[in-house]
Specification:
The structure is a homodimer of 185-residue chains.
Chain A (H helix, E strand, L loop, with lengths): L10 H17 L6 H8 L3 H7 L3 H24 L3 H18 L1 H6 L4 H4 L6 H14 L6 H18 L7 H16 L4
Helix pairs in contact in A: 1-2, 2-3, 4-5, 4-8, 5-9, 5-10, 8-9, 9-10
The structure holds a DNA duplex (30 and 30 nucleotides).
DNA sequence: ACCGGATCTGACCGATCGGTCAGACCCTGA
DNA sequence: TCAGGGTCTGACCGATCGGTCAGATCCGGT
């Protein structure tokens, strides 16, 4: 049988993805050249572009798992209302941020720019709904400010604790999120 | 008398600074070319480099006021201990973030890269002391995580509310910071 | 009328960017 | 043995990057 149907990735392919994730997290997307990624793996720049149609395609493939999980979270939030949605959003986003620390971190700062790409446009809408859920669907400026601080703070922070295991980072992030959002427990 | 001693800046100089702040805030430092800045002002790229020795020098001059205020805050924190330092740090940083929204926001994401420049190295130490003060000088991982979430969240958020006046944004940020850090009031 | 400094610009430079392409080097199946 | 697909590379492309430079323009002082 053709069991390699589910194996479109070679070892080099995966190495390049991992190297790109590392470099993007340090020097950002625009600040990382294909040469940099190739050098880290030990191959030529042309090899990077053999495995990925373009630099953008590399980024998309890198972010795909995290985006999928974000879409699932969005659907789960939509199935709840009020304080329930707030708890689901906080729990789910902390889980996502911990699991995809590198991927989330590399979006830092280049968010407004990268989101212009067609593949990422709908993420803006999702993140808006996420902010609304964090704010408890209140339109008070204080609630929206708190929601954005927590959301951005978690996203920014998770990449800084790559040495701390998931089981320790997750409750710490959840605790500060609940306090800041005044989640009724 | 020579009252122009305190006027080493021309109108074009200031226009270029303002345009650079705007562009850096949208597309980031690396994502903004000297051409972009020149185009926004309506002059040539060469004019930009006539008023500023280099792109780096432009960034340094743009950040100088915010950096000065950050250094003053650092000194003020050092003059306090324990919970007093925590309150001083939170109040002072929120004030700084609100006052220099654009400048803080443009550091987003490119922080680790830009800080490599010699002019910015000591800022890393200051921000470490700031995190420590936010954490109440505790080395519990939960306290440090909360401190970083609040610090990064405020820095990231303040640039997103350019339409809200200072008097409204400041108390909103302070409230969420106090809740998240469990500041004893 | 002339000069000197400040301001500004077009043309140009080397470097690097993302991306293309023809071909070399495997390895496998016929 | 050979054909063919997968993998990889050096050489090359046009575009753009930050930065340099000689010179044009303007303007106030002498």
């Amino acid at each position: 049988m053709l069991e390699d149907m589910a194996r479109p990735t070679t070892a080099t392919h995966d190495e390049l993805l991992a190297a790109a994730a590392r470099r993007f997290g340090v020097t950002g997307y625009k600040g990382t050249s294909l040469q940099d990624i190739a050098r880290e793996v030990g191959c030529s720049k042309a090899t990077v572009l053999y495995h990925f149609a373009s630099k953008d395609a590399l980024l998309c493939e890198l972010m795909a798992p995290a985006i999928t999980m974000l879409e699932e979270l969005d659907a789960r939030i939509a199935a709840h209302t009020g304080a329930g949605a707030q708890r689901v959003a906080a729990d789910g986003f902390v889980d996502l941020a911990v699991r995809f620390r590198r991927e989330i971190a590399l979006l830092r700062g280049e968010f407004p720019d990268l989101l212009q790409q067609p593949a990422f446009t709908h993420i803006q809408q999702i993140s808006e709904r996420l902010v609304a859920a964090f704010a408890g669907f209140s339109d008070r400026p204080e609630a929206r400010v708190a929601a954005l601080v927590v959301l951005a703070g978690i996203a920014e922070t998770c990449g800084e604790f790559l040495d701390i295991p998931d089981e320790q980072l997750r409750p710490a992030l959840l605790a500060v999120a609940y306090r800041a959002l005044e989640v009724t427990t």
